[in-house]
Design goal:
Layout lengths: L4 E2 L2 E2 L20 E4 L8 E5 L3 E2 L4 E7 L8 E6 L4 E7 L5 E8 L4 E7 L8 E6 L4 E5 L11 E4 L4 E7 L8 E6 L13 E7 L5 E7 L7 E5 L8 E6 L4 E6 L10 E7 L3 E7 L8 E6 L4 E5 L11 E4 L7 E7 L8 E6 L4 E5 L13 E3 L6 E7 L8 E7 L5 E8 L7 E2 L2 E2 L1
Amino acid sequence: MKATTYGNFVFCGDRARSKAALWAAPVLGCLLAAASVTASAQIAFQAQPPFVTGPNPSAIAVGDFNGDGKLDLAVAMFGNNDVYIYTGNGDGTFSFAGFRAVGTQPVAIVAGDFNHDGNLDLATANSGSSNVSILLGNGNATFQAAAAYAVGNTPVSIATDSFNPNGFADLVTANQGNVCPPTFNPCGTLTVLGGNGDGTFFTATTLFPQFVPVKVATGLFDASLNSDIVVTSHDSNAFLVYLGDGGGAGSFPIAKGPFTTASAYAVVVADFNGGGKSDLAISRSDSGDVSLQLGNGDGTFQTGVIYNEGAIGAHPYAAALGDFDGDGFPDLALANNSDNSVAVLRDRTVGNGGFDAALTFTGGLACPSSIAVGDFNGNGKPDLVVANDCSGTANFLTVFLNTSIPTDRIFANGFQ
């Protein structure tokens, strides 16, 4: 499978967002830069001219969809129920390659090889039709007609992982609109779709987190090495972990939590402190900051440590991971919907980990709703792509190319 990876991470984006993200006014000369005097990389990104998409771009998946070794983009269009494909030119620019219809109001998208043919496929979570659309890739940036699979009502996030010993790719969606038994109110569900290995899926199980979910991701949170699920809830100020037992796509017998995190929204999974355990970074949408939740290795987490990343009310609705400074550790990028900014937080990976002060840039953004990571110009550095969706008035993508100077080229008396 040809996928976008850095270390053990695969990067995708979604609007409302597995184991181990669109902008109409020109954005020229927007530069993010910061440097310390010694032993620290200079972080810098250069914005490229944006390009217009279809209506309401809501989510981005990154991958090599035509097998040419250059990263491409698949963009879910909430406004016209399509997925647009943009093939990469290898220099940070993209060309429109076509589209495929999916379900109604797609809000999230992931890429994976669902039929084991070596070509990347796509799955969208469609909030308006309460289903998942599967687009099987032909290996040339075209896709077969969508197949639909029912999930819970109003899915808003999707992730892919293998919950089975068979290694087949499975899917999990976070659904907000279900009417549940009284014991499970306030309501929301997770739907796990088991993969058959041939690009088809079956409903494996429904999970009841007892709150309204907003984002879902996967990871390894205990010593079993079976894939687990984490889900956040903005309304309930919490997140919850389901531990898989490896017995099948529907087998999650143990729930850990809920754990308190105010206005919990986007969630990403990585080892942020080098401790060999999966940790979480969870954006707190109402306060414009991030809660770092270090994992204990048994499905539980230490008390969250808060890192400021922007003004209160920034509403970081989307997050992505990348080693932006080249030090071998995962850094965090956030798309702030309300104040039209993107923030990058460098992972310190010293002691208990943590993040350096956020580097924030604002030029030319319009309601950024999704963010994704990939090396779009082939220089070995992870770049950013952001989706902007301002109620139909701004529908475009912008790429920020990474021009950072790696740590090993910086010395106390200046740059190498």
